[in-house]
Amino acid sequence: MDKRWLLRDIPAPEQIEQLSKAININSYLSSILIQRGISDFESAKFFFRPSLEHLHDPFLMKGMEKAVSRLKQAIDREEKILIYGDYDVDGTTSVALVYSYLRNFYPNCKIYIPDRYAEGYGVSLAGVEWAEQNQCTLIIALDCGIKSSELVNIALLKGIDFIICDHHLPDESIPQAVAVLDPKQSDCPYPYKELSGCGLGFKFMQAFAQRFRDEKEVYGFLDLVAVSIASDIVPITGENRILTNFGLKKLNEDPRPGLKALKDIAGLRNELDVSGIVFTLGPRINAAGRVAHGSAAVELLIAETEEEANMMAEKVNLKNEVRKQFDSDITEEAIAMIEGDATLRAAKSTVLFKNTWHKGVIGIVAARCVEKYYRPTVILTESNNKITGSARSVNGFDLYGAILECSDLLEKFGGHKYAAGLTLDINNLELFQQKFEQVVSSTITEEMLTPVIDVDMPLHFDMITPKFITVLKQMAPFGPENQRPVFEASGLYVFNSLSSFKDRHVRFLVAQHKNESVFQAVGFDLADRYERLAKGDMFKMVFTIEENTFNGTTSIQLRIKDIKFH
């Protein structure tokens, strides 16, 4: 599939020169920094030298005083506290953090994770009733609750208070909880708005520790915060960048038993970064809630001994193997359905349904179909006598808006521009398929149907020096809104050592015309370029620069994102 390369705007020369002189780096690196909003010595110092001292005062957040006071009151009165969280990575890490911190000095806490299939996302009536049956008089809701006004009111009638810690966008009506911690509330003055759910749990415990204990105790849980930030795809900017930076150090140097066990079972030997969490730890933690119950993930994350953690990691990893098989089988079926139907192949959208598909993985399957066909995709299955599904979009297309256009055919839906969930009556399936295709066809552009690679700048190979690499490494942790820089180079040819592996990928030494530098390059899913590379055709490519460690030796490697021939 052809991809569009979009070169970012290069900053003004005088701006580049000014920053280069201020922090003693070359113009290429200065340009990248300015593109990311780092334009002077002070902002560069803040960016390159993250410090826990730069974290915002948690009491700047609306509701924090009330939250801390109510928690202290509950502890003083020896009330039973229920730590309630969602079943995904952000929810389970949030619960693990708050529960593990509190149990150090207050044993009267219980955990509740809703069942993905019986209860669905967020605060449930079953959860409130469980709290009542177990004499809990305070519920701390993590990564959920901001849209649970009705259930908060039901809890209040039962004598149960709520403290809500949620990072999702609130409705106009805010639940009548004792305290609502959500920086996205329009009247919340907290300076950073993009915390994860676990990040909010951390800020709550940080505030409590400032008042009544030692704040440094809470820093021991930053490995959980880093896992949540990476897995929930929130921006790696501002406070999130600080939390991720120190969380990764904890994760790599002294992780809690559950995360260490997960690293070991995944066979991870090198240092983990954000991408490593996303592709190894995150899916394993998520798998518990996808194919069984999310409580297994929490049990793993709160494990206090290596023996207990290793046992739980085995269970969670088995769930992940089941998840991967479901994922692979359903993706194959979905692709076969498209390839076997000329109308589906020619469509501008994908809407597929099969009543036996596993609900826990249809979101992943939707994402894989987008990767292959690059168009808005809805994957549907049957659950509780209804059709339910997950939708994923392409860059620039408002998926939520398209689903909203079909709302007359839906019973329930929610989400945002690029991902959504929906429920409909089985009798409306065909009508929804037709209408969604009609809406997408009338609004999507050809540009939106072509994958985009954002390129930071053109780069000559002779600029890739040890100092250049050192500065690039200091720009980590990389992730949303601080992605690893992408470069474009032209006049390239295969120097030698061209090989294909696993029938999908290519590896070779690459050189540039009129340039002495030669680098190892690897291109995943680019085996279709092998023949022309073998012929010696000149090409240009977009790539990132990484360090690759193999058998104890570290070398520079160019990770190819795309190749185009001259």
Automatic annotation (TrEMBL):
Query: A biological process (GO) annotation for this entry?
Result: DNA repair
Q: Which residues form the RecJ OB domain?
A: 455-562
Q: Looking at the record's lineage, which domain of life comes first? A: Bacteria
Pfam families from the UniProt entry:
DHH, DHHA1, RecJ_OB
Positions of the DDH domain: 80-228
> What InterPro entries has UniProt attached to this entry?
DDH_dom, DHH_sf, DHHA1_dom, RecJ, RecJ_OB, SSDNA_exonuclease_RecJ
- Domain DHHA1 positions: 351-441
Say if the entry is tagged with keyword Chloroplast: no
**Which keywords annotate this record?**
Exonuclease, Hydrolase, Nuclease
Query: Is Nuclease tagged as a keyword?
Result: yes
**UniProt GO molecular function:** 5'-3' exonuclease activity; nucleic acid binding
- What SUPFAM superfamilies would the database entry show? DHH phosphoesterases
Similarity remark: Belongs to the RecJ family.
PANTHER family per UniProt: SINGLE-STRANDED-DNA-SPECIFIC EXONUCLEASE RECJ (PTHR30255)
The protein depicted here goes by the name Single-stranded-DNA-specific exonuclease RecJ
- According to its UniProt entry, this protein's organism is Chryseolinea serpens
